[in-house]
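Handoff note, outgoing to incoming analyst
You'll be picking up this chain. Sequence as last confirmed:
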Amino acid sequence: MRHFDFSPLYRSTVGFDKLLSMLDSINSDTPSYPPYNIERTGENAYRITMAVAGFGEKDLSLEAKEHVLTVKGEKQAEDGAGEVLYRGIASRAFERRFQLAEFVRVDGAHLENGLLHIDLVREIPEAMKARKIEITAGQPRQIEASTH
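Most recent structure output, in case you need it:
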C-alpha cells in the first residue's frame, strides 16, 4: 500500500481532523487475522462477518465504545483433549478494532458455522435528516424555533 500525505487536507478543511488522523494511521502492517468481510445489507444496515473457526461463544467478546467496535478472541485452555501432533487451525488470540461512523450502533451478533456475524445499523436522528423547506410568495415570514 502506498503512503499518502494528507497534510494539504489539514490546511483546507475544518472539523475533519479525526477522519484524517484515522486515514493517516492506516498502514500496510495491519493484522490480517482473523479474515473478515464488511458488507452493506440495506440502505442503513451493515454486517461484519469474521472467520473465527475453532472459537466458541465463550471465547469471543465484543465491546462498542466511543465509535469503536472491538472484537476479541481468546481460546480457553482445552483440558484432556490429547496430544496435538499438527496444528493447522489457528487458535491464537486476536483483537480487531473497527471504527464506527457517527450514529452507527451494533444491532446484534451471532456465531454460525465458524463465522461471527455482527449486524450494524445507522440511525440518523430526526433533527439531522433532510427536511423540505416550504417556499412562499409575498412577505417574508418569521421562522419560529420549534420546542421539542
